[in-house]
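Quick start: what a row looks like.
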Amino acid sequence: MKKRRIRIMNTLLFVVVITVAIWIVLTIVVRQQGPERIAIIGSSTNDYKALIIYNPDPIYNLDEKISRSFAAGLSENGWLSKISTVAAAKKLEKEEQFDLYVFCANTYNWTPDKAIRDHINNDEYIKGKNVVAITLGSGATKRSQRILEDLIKEKEAKLIESREFWLMKSNDESKTKSSNIKIALEMANTFGKEIAEKIKN
């Protein structure tokens, strides 16, 4: 009986150690800044321009998908969007003027991802500008959203709207049988349309 208890305790200890090790590795990986990537959605003849900034999630690709869907919504209302990773955004901000800045942040350990936080903290271009905050996560994003909003406000930008989209938690309780990711993308597209009209008016 005693040996059996020791085996159970050793097994539990092993599981805990492995879990902690995986968590530490994942935390280190997701803190890294992703590669330089820029995508353009919309026509260069459009009157309004948006810069959408995200840091690629190495596990899921929801951030880029949401950014593209939001940009498509803007495009339908006469906007040009440049979707940029954090690594490429600083150069764009130096060279161009934008009517809207969008920060799309993943949530890790109940906070926005470090690359986005660092970028906003060092951003010299959003003071007085229109900014939208998008917070992504599995489902528990309230604290992360609040931190992201506070960072933007501290830079004296105009935070005109803030939304959350989730990977696992239902984005629409009335559509629980539909793909949660698909619903999030549809909502991001609608959100883009709403913001386009809000700024133009």
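That is the whole record. The CA atoms of residues 110 and 141 lie 6 Å apart. The chain has six helices and seven strands.
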